[in-house]
Design goal:
heterodimer, A: about 270 residues, mainly alpha, MetI-like fold, two-stranded antiparallel ribbon, 13 helices, B: about 290 residues, two-stranded antiparallel sheet, 12 helices
Chain lengths: ~270, ~290
């Protein structure tokens, strides 16, 4: 009885999650006339035209390439700087460590709207405007603190004796860190990378402010569909569907890590 | 764990400091600078002191936006936290279906904010959207572009759709870490379902739940893109939350001074609430460690 109740709750909840997505997918396979003139639950005249538009027009598909480039850069940068810092926070006390940790977290709390304009000016003045690295660095603002926070939780779970044994065995710090320590917290790194990917992929305000042509993310490109001839709903829906795909792929690959990793660490 | 006192650990933290300083301190200082200056263009600034702050503290526009923001965050937390816990309790514990649930539930989290907005914009429209179409068919006069209440409901349902999974996933992780022995002991004692929840599951979830509440509070307080895409802050000003108002002021009207003063106070409010959460959280951690 109890099991059935749970299944029902989950089914309802998943339906609630999936119906709006279904509607988007449904629309992406319709022609614009079908979308605006009739109301159908399934595409009557099934068409791939909307996807063809996106995949053949460089100004569309380059949006995806740009997004993927800066998200990857951001994940790499965030993890590279966050790993040693998280190790320091989990193993040592040092002057001002607690204040520093909270200060880092405050950056995760800063509304991006506050930073949009200063970022624009800062990156313009150092000549980074409209480059992938600019967006990647800007996203470090909230991803680095988050990565440090998550990794610190995982590292605290690794007993300190392991470090000491490694030093007695003659490992140097960098070698110990890469050869022994990182494999131990692999699922933590996976979870941190997942969260960095997620928050960088979905962020729009900063990435739109910092780019104009060369590094324009797909999410910003989507605003283009409002043209003189009215909304191009079909292409808009297709573009939306394509932005979901990379996320879905990432989830599929890390699904075991999420289940395991969530339980181990603090996030 | 006992930590060693070692001030050289600063070197390990240094890269983080450099990168965050570049992307946080410099822009923040620029904002502080704007907030005490006025300009007539041509990059000529002159000091006006706290004038902008005074103007903003007394501005009714800010008060209204703040009121809406607090109401919004309160409603969001009141719906998403209990619902998230409830979903987490009902998720399958392991096996194939657990993976399926995990993947499907994470899906809304990985959709770019403006696409979330687009999905609900389309979904709610009376002419082409599934929801709007059926609501008007059964005779409910629903139109989120004209009616403030409908706009609010749409934005709230959208946020619940978007973020409840995060709360649920975090709680689920907390539940997974409860050893089976606890449940067996409860069964021996013939504990009711409610007391199992109250005395076993809730305390074990407390840590992750606080993280979830903290994240949800911060993010709902900063919400910008989704309502902007769906309602554009309208109808009228009814869904103009703080961030939307701020961007309107800073980038739309280029009122840098007031916008900067506004930003700083906005930031301080978030900081204050988060600090309270954080303190509670670390105290909980310490108690657990004992």
């Amino acid at each position: 009885m109890r099991l059935r109740g749970s299944a029902l709750v989950m089914t309802l909840y998943l339906l609630f999650l999936l119906v709006p997505i279904y509607w988007l997918v449904n629309m992406s396979f319709k022609t614009n006339t079908e979308i605006t003139s009739t109301f159908t639950l399934f595409p009557n005249s099934f068409t791939l035209r909307n996807y063809v538009v996106i995949l053949t027009d460089p100004s569309w598909y380059m949006g995806y390439v740009n997004s993927i480039i800066y998200v990857t850069m951001n994940v790499v940068i965030s993890l590279t700087v966050a790993l040693p810092a998280a190790y320091a926070f989990s193993r040592y006390t040092f002057m001002g460590d607690k204040h520093l940790f909270f200060w880092l977290l405050t950056n995760r709390m800063a509304p991006p709207a506050v930073f949009a304009l200063p970022f624009f000016q800062l990156y313009s003045s150092v000549g980074l405007f409209d480059t992938h690295i600019a967006v990647a660095l800007a996203h470090c603002l909230f991803n680095v603190p988050l990565a440090v926070w998550i990794l610190e939780g995982f590292m605290r779970g690794v007993p300190k004796e392991i470090d000491e044994t490694a030093y007695i065995d003659g490992y140097s710090f960098p070698r110990f860190f890469i050869k022994i320590f990182m494999p131990l917290i692999a699922s933590g790194i996976g979870v941190a990378a997942f969260f960095c990917f997620m928050f960088s992929w979905v962020e729009l305000l900063l990435s739109r402010t910092l780019t104009s042509v060369n590094a324009k993310p797909i999410a910003a490109t989507m605003t283009r569909t409002v043209s003189a001839s009215g909304m191009d709903w079909g292409v808009l829906a297709a573009a939306g569907v394509l932005t979901i795909v990379p996320g879905a792929l990432v989830i599929w690959f890390v699904r075991n890590y999420i289940a395991k990793g969530f339980a181990l660490g603090r996030v | 764990m006992d930590k060693t006192q070692n001030n050289k650990a600063w070197f390990l933290v240094l890269p983080v400091l450099v990168i965050v300083a570049f992307s946080a301190i410099i822009p923040l200082m620029t904002v502080v600078n704007y907030s005490v200056n006025d300009t007539f263009g041509n990059n000529e600034f002159f000091l006006v002191g706290l004038e902008w702050f005074e103007e903003m503290v007394t501005s009714s526009r800010l008060h209204e936006a703040l009121g809406r923001q607090i109401l919004f965050s309160a409603i969001i937390l009141a719906i998403e936290v209990p619902l998230g816990i409830y979903i987490a309790l009902n998720m399958p514990k392991k096996g194939f279906w657990a993976s399926v649930c995990l993947v499907l539930m994470s899906l809304p989290l990985l959709i770019p904010f403006n696409v979330v907005g687009t999905i609900w914009q389309i979904f709610g429209r009376v002419d082409i959207g599934l929801l709007g179409h059926y609501l008007s068919k059964i005779g409910i006069d629903y139109n989120y572009t004209n009616d403030p209440l409908d706009a609010w409901i749409t934005v709230i349902v959208m946020d619940v759709w978007h973020w409840t999974s995060l709360v649920a996933l975090l709680c689920y992780a907390g539940l997974q870490s409860i050893p089976n022995a606890y449940y067996q002991a409860a069964r021996v004692d013939q504990a009711s379902r409610w007391s199992v929840f109250r005395y076993i599951e809730l305390p074990k979830m407390a840590g992750v739940l606080l993280i979830a509440i903290l994240l949800r509070f911060m993010d709902s307080f900063m919400i910008y893109t989704e309502p902007f895409v769906v309602t554009g802050g309208g109808p009228g000003n009814s869904t103009t939350f703080l961030s939307i108002d701020l961007v309107k002021m800073a980038i739309g009207q280029f009122d840098l001074g007031p916008a900067a003063a506004f930003s700083l106070m906005y930031f301080l409010v978030i900081l204050l609430v988060s600090w309270v959460f954080y303190t509670v959280m670390t105290n909980l951690d310490k108690e657990e460690g004992k």
